[in-house]
Amino acid sequence: PLESREVLEARIEELKRRYPAGDVPRNPDWGGYRLVPEMYEFWQGRESRLHDRFTYTRTADGWAIQRLNP
User: Fold this and answer.
1) How much is the average pLDDT of 8-30?
2) Phi-psi region for residue 56, left (φ > 0), alpha (ψ -120 to 50) or beta?
3) pLDDT category, 20, cuts 50, 70, 90?
4) Is 35 exposed, middle or buried (0-12, 13-18, 19+ CB in 10 A)?
5) Of the listed 5, 26, 46, 49, which one is catalytic?
6) Beta partners for 43?
7) Is 58 labeled as catalytic in the residue annotation?
8) How many domains does the chain have?
9) Is residue 31 part of a domain?
10) Structure pTM?
11) Is residue 52 part of a domain?
12) Cα angle value 32/33/35 (rounded, 5°)
């Protein structure tokens, strides 16, 4: 866990000083995945149970947003 926001910001400043060009060397064992979603759903619960739900669907121009039933 992170102790505080201040600790995070101090670490970022230290890395900026350590790597001023912005190129931080990667661990040789580093790997990852790139996800390119076509659609995702956002859900925000509320105590009233009238939750906010939206789908975001990729279009040629960006994202189409649609509100769903709670």
Assistant:
1) 93
2) beta
3) very high
4) exposed
5) 49
6) 53
7) no
8) 1
9) no
10) 0.55
11) yes
12) 150
Tokens linked to 20: 């001023």
User: How many whole angstroms separate alpha carbon 52 and alpha carbon 50?
Assistant: 7
Residue range of the domain that includes 22: 5-26+36-68
Answer yes or no: are the C-beta atoms of 25 and 15 closer than 8 Å: no
Question: Measured between alpha carbons, how far is residue 54 from residues 48, 50, 70 in Å?
Answer: 17, 13, 9
- Distance (Å, rounded) from C-alpha 57 to C-alpha 64? 5
55 in a domain, yes or no? yes
Tokens 């009238």 sit at which residue? 50
The answer to whether residue 44 sits within a structural domain is yes
Per-residue model confidence as pLDDT tens digits over 22-34: 888 999 999 999 9
